[in-house]
Amino acid sequence: MFIGQYNHTIDEKGRMSIPAKYRRDLQQGVVVTRGLDHCLFVYPKSEWEVMAEKLSRLPVSQKKSRAFARLMLAGAMDADLDGQGRVMLPEYLRQYASVKKHVIVAGLYNRLEIWDEDAWREYRTKTELESDDIAESMNDLDI
Amino acid sequence: MFIGQYNHTIDEKGRMSIPAKYRRDLQQGVVVTRGLDHCLFVYPKSEWEVMAEKLSRLPVSQKKSRAFARLMLAGAMDADLDGQGRVMLPEYLRQYASVKKHVIVAGLYNRLEIWDEDAWREYRTKTELESDDIAESMNDLDI
DNA sequence: CAGGTGGTCACCACTTTTCCCCACTTTTAT
DNA sequence: ATAAAAGTGGGGAAAAGTGGTGACCACCTG
Q: Which residues form the SpoVT-AbrB domain (chains A, B) (predicted)?
């Protein structure tokens, strides 16, 4: 279970170190994909495979299914941690999330999220203002 | 399982190198064919058999099925990787996908797709606008 | 039939990227 | 305060990507 948030940096080679607390659960490798709200999602391989299997069953004939599969599958990239517990983030993913050097790594139970530091701050202040609204909506989910 | 996306180039002889990660599953040879949305589909030979079988079962009486079968079956071409892991893309396929020099190779679980770089970028920005719709679709899949 | 032409294929060579390891700095824990 | 762990940066070896040359074959042409 991943929780918490960390400030990390991406070096000139596009590598980012995974918070030490998370590493044990990610030894088998990770899959990084384009996430929602322009951040990156990081799944342990085992979690990912369940999702990929679902995605593979979408009908090729449907336009929307193809678009969805292309976003998620073609957007995904599997990686292993190096000796220092880092992963390489390919150029196209860094661009998608517009991450430069300073990023936020957040734990969200079964996945991590990688945010550009500025985008994160912006998102946080925006949602804080709407937090009452958001809380109301959560009613529907038994929370 | 093919995932991820890569920038590759087609040389003057029409050859394109397959991303190294994919090669092991394509050693037995590939089938390249006209795909949907004006890109090319690349299947491992074994996957192609499954696909071709499905196509052969489409009702001959339906105009649209006939068109689809002709697109995929008549457009197909089988090829082997050369010593450097490349395939030769025949002229008529390059023309169909209007690929010139710079292409995107994307992994979509059981097939690859080859896109002209510009066409890909255009497609991405277009579908990005529909990302709300896409998020909805995730709901249907329990993701 | 000999020679020329065009195309394909296998192999070689150069460049770029990726991966692996070592080293230094900063933070955390004892 | 000291030791240990985590985060960060960089150098060098290896692999991948790309472009090119030359052998080989079929076909056309004089």
A: 5-47, 76-119
Strand D closer than 7 A to residue A6 Cβ: yes
Q: Does A90 touch chain B (CB under 8 A)?
A: yes
Residue A91 maps to which CATH number? 3.40.1550.20
> Is residue A81, in this structure, part of any structural domain at all?
yes
The answer, as to whether pTM is greater than 0.90, is: yes
Say which of B36, B133, B143 has its CB closest to residue A64: B133
Domain count within chain B: 1
Q: Is A37 on the interface with B (CB under 8 A)?
A: no
In a domain, A88, yes or no: yes
Structural Rg of chain B based on CA atoms: 16
Domain that holds residue A42: 2-116
User: What residue has token string 């279970």?
Assistant: A1
Residue A138 in any domain: the answer is no
Number of residues that make up chain A: 143
Name the residue type at position B1: M
Per-residue pLDDT of chain A (143 residues; tens, 9 = 90+): 899 999 999 999 999 999 999 999 999 999 999 988 899 999 999 999 999 999 999 888 888 889 989 999 999 999 999 999 999 999 999 999 999 999 999 999 999 999 999 999 999 999 988 888 888 888 877 87
Residues of chain B contacting A55 with CB distance shorter than 8 Å: 109, 141
With an 8 Å Cβ cutoff, is B142 touching chain A?
yes
